[in-house]
Amino acid sequence: MNTYPKRWQALNFLIAGAFLSPLDYFIVNMALPSIKNAFKANDHQLQMVVAIYGLTYAALVVCGGRLGDLYGRKKIFTLGLYTFLFSSLACAFSPTVTWLIIARMFQGIGASLLAPQVLSSIKVLFNSQEQPKAVSLFSSVFGLASVVGQLLGGLLLSMHWGNFSWEMVFLVNVPITILCITGIHFTMDNNHKERNSGIDLKGSLLLIISLLMLIFPLIFGQKYHWALWLFGIILMGAFLLTIFLRYEMNLLKNNKPILVDPTLLQHKPFALCLLILFFYNFTAGLFICYPYYLQQFLHQTSIQTGLAIIPYGLAFFLGPLIVSKVKISPHKLIYIGLLLLMGGFIFTALNFHFQGKPSFISHLTLFMAGLGHGTIMPVMMRTAITFTTKEKAGQASGLVSIGMQIGSVTGGVVVGTLFFNLIDTFGFPEAFAFAIGLIGAIQIVGIWGNSKLGKYING
After folding, report:
1. Same domain, 253 and 310
2. Which residue has the higher pLDDT, 192 or 208?
3. Which of 76, 176, 217, 397 could bridge to 230 as Cys pair (CB 3.0-4.6 Å)?
């Protein structure tokens, strides 16, 4: 009998809290034109409004997972909710765009505390038979956020709420966070807190700096025309990351507190999971290119743009729910998800190459790609955490989140840069077809990784 009788009720609030992280990525993108007008902001400032959130989240998420291991996941999740609540209010009532950028940074901190607690709590609260359903429910929120973020953003911006306009995309977080704070208080234990042996502050600083140095040039590369000094920063970040791993290994040998157990990354099946997670998150490029294409080339409104992403987002939402019901091995499900993802994007690229605009066929192919995304995400999350112990669940969850986040940033940069650079040469339809086709083609790396992973999981 499970010792956590309210685990399913707690999962509802954990998922609702986790929903905030991707929601704020999608919904804020819709509000950028209004923010630009309100503050007379330049393109660089608008880019910072978006980038600082993802940058902070990616750099701190492993630390968030480790804090959950040390102090209890309920406490850290609640702290993340309060951080998200007050930073959302600070965003909504920002007097300047600089204030807004700083408040968005604190939103990223809140997100880094929320996300890793969910996956690690599932590892602890649910038995092995229940975990597939729990992970699938958690994964479905990412697809739901892609739909709700676009539609809700467009809806809120098209309505008039007194003197509020863009502010509403931040104020909508307030009731959700309050609901989650109340619900978590009554349904969740501060599960499986390990003996508090202290925090590895030096390791934390090394990891944060190295990740910032790896991600910053990717986000701002196009702005600075990919100057050589940006590649120097990336190399320095990779060097510091190597130092961090050696430092952690040395601490582990001397039985001192660590931030990340380096043996996790040396464990080949877990490392292969991170590889697959990284490349399938190149799908983030779709959400950069598609709205721009629809609005700038086809001159569609924000509401029309939000509606256009529904086939992908709906399938992304349904995929995890379907996966939880089918009796197919994880190894085969990963293949199915990757092939659907690859085929969906390649067929979508072909459609835009020949037609240049959305059609019934492109809606079907985007639905196919979204179903692949929704199929593979819960399977990969579940597979990754099966290779860890409960004591390392927070660290593993943080590494999974980092892999997904850096994959999204890298994919967005690579696909977006290709798209924008090809527009002048080949025109909008061809540039979009090339960019979207790349997302499908790159999944061949994941297929290769899954072929190696097969020997470690039931196939």
Report:
1. no
2. 208
3. 217
